[in-house]
Amino acid sequence: MNQLRPFHLAFPVHDIAAARRFYADILGCREGRSAEHWVDFDLSGHQIVAHYDANARPVSVTNAVDGDAVPVPHFGLVLTMADWKALAERLRGAGIDFVIEPHIRFAGQAGEQATMFFYDPSGNALEFKAFADDAMLFATDDAGAK
């Protein structure tokens, strides 16, 4: 499984119109196929699908990661650092409230990364991150030890 292929993720939303505005207008996702109760979005070549669920409500579970209360579940992308910075500014300009403000996590450690968390209008948590060196994506503290 070395060749990267697009992933598919279906998730609940309680307002299809709000999901369309958020994913298309804020995140810049191109809309694909849709019907009355679902809509496909192109998230950097990956297929994410918002499915209507009148009872969809956010889950309020968090796990501690490097001093932050990380919402679980969540999804997102690993961006280039330049794209991550541009997205952070675009989100700030759109008035998005961050659950975890854009910052550097694991500073000076294996896996150092820029990260930010925020919710979509239905309460789905998203994380977008970036690495100065993509080789650090799966790095561990003992990566150099043999």
UniProtKB/TrEMBL annotation:
PROSITE patterns linked to this entry: VOC
Which Pfam families does the protein's record reference?
A: Glyoxalase
- Return the PANTHER family for the record: PTHR39434, VOC DOMAIN-CONTAINING PROTEIN
**Cross-referenced Gene3D superfamilies, in alphabetical order?**
2,3-Dihydroxybiphenyl 1,2-Dioxygenase, domain 1 (3.10.180.10)
This chain belongs to the protein called VOC domain-containing protein
Residues covered by the VOC domain? 5-131
On the tree of life, the source organism's domain of life is: Bacteria
